[in-house]
Design brief:
ten-stranded parallel sheet, alpha/beta, about 15% helix, UDP N-Acetylglucosamine Acyltransferase, domain 1
């Protein structure tokens, strides 16, 4: 439980009303109880302020006067709500219990204030930083490094040598560092290329459930700071993703692609290998990216399956479509 005053002080925000109001968790305007705090970010829900039972509401300065109850005033109520919710989550993550049915190799270095769940294996030469929370059935192979305050959910596999920064969150079923899809065609069939690189995650990364990030073939697969990946995403070997880039579910990125900083990539996007996407690019859901993007902006587009030769001819003509329309318009004006 935290008082409204404590929340305001933690976030450096002003409040109005009873500072001793006790808050236990967050809730929606429609369903919050008197011990919860809610927020209003979308104007279409303003009418719910009249009937909410929330003990306090996070509001912008322009809306605060429309509510007679306790108010936490924020420039961006949605961002403030996220920070408040994080305060309550962090308060719960204080367990330092090592389950007796876990295995920690004698040569692993695990901080004293770490929690480890049942049937988890931590191999030799692993380094686990302070306050990490590791769930059940987790496999952390030799040489892995976890920075401080990481949360590794149940069923995660982190393969040999991978390095995670501080405050990373890896959700259930994710695999970090599996072999990349590296094959060479021999006369007798496919020859597997050894994948000897690792995966490096920066600070504050979040990896969704059942997402896979392949290790590098020779060099490493690298995610910068504050990269956020949704569920069921595939990141190929030697991919580089810049700071603060996010991807929605079911996106696939083929090997050796470079993605810049502050990119927003929608769900179900396919990105071919060996291309570059610059900083500040937004790619709409279900798009297919087949070439490098060298200027910031918003992009979208896909095409139905067809023979490659036909697709290439049609794609070339599609790029000329605007030019053709302009010529037709000019001809129409001359009539």
């Amino acid at each position: 439980m935290k008082t409204l005053y404590e929340l305001a002080d933690s976030l450096g925000l002003p409040f109005r009303g009873n500072g001793q109001c006790l808050i236990s968790s967050v809730g929606t305007l429609a369903h919050a109880e008197s011990s919860q705090i809610s927020f209003l970010a979308n104007p279409k829900y303003t009418n719910q302020l009249q009937n909410t039972r929330a003990g306090a509401v996070i509001l912008s300065e322009s809306v605060a006067d429309k509510f007679s109850g306790n108010v936490l005033i924020a420039p961006d109520p949605y961002v403030a709500f996220a920070k408040v919710a994080r305060l309550f989550v962090d308060a719960k993550q204080t367990n330092t219990y090592i389950h007796p049915q876990s295995f920690i190799h004698p040569e692993a270095q695990v901080a004293d204030d770490v929690s480890v769940g049942a049937f988890t294996v931590i191999d030799a030469d692993v380094i686990v930083g302070q306050r990490c929370q590791i769930g059940h059935h987790v496999t952390i192979e030799s040489g892995v490094v976890l920075g401080n305050d990481c949360v590794i959910k149940s069923g995660v596999t982190i393969e040999s040598g991978c390095k995670l920064g501080q405050r990373c969150i890896i959700h259930s079923g994710a695999v970090i560092g599996a072999d990349g899809f590296g094959l060479a065609r021999d006369e007798d069939g496919w020859l597997k290329i050894p994948q000897t690189g690792i995966v490096r995650l920066g600070n504050d990364c979040e990896i969704g459930a059942n997402t896979t990030i392949d290790c590098g073939t020779i060099d490493d697969t690298i995610l910068g700071n504050d990269v956020r990946l949704d569920n069921q995403i595939q990141i190929g070997h030697n991919v580089h993703i810049g700071d603060h880039t996010i991807m929605a579910g079911c996106t696939a990125v083929a090997g050796s692609t470079m993605i810049g900083r502050n990119c927003l990539i929608g769900g179900g996007v396919g990105i071919v290998g060996h291309i570059e996407i610059c900083d500040n690019v937004t790619i709409q859901a279900m798009s297919l990216v087949t070439h490098s993007i060298k200027e910031a902006g918003q992009f979208s587009g896909a095409a139905p399956l067809q023979k490659v030769a036909d697709w290439r001819k049609n794609a070339a003509r599609y790029r000329q479509l605007d030019q053709w329309v302009r010529k037709v318009n000019q001809l129409e004006k001359k009539k």
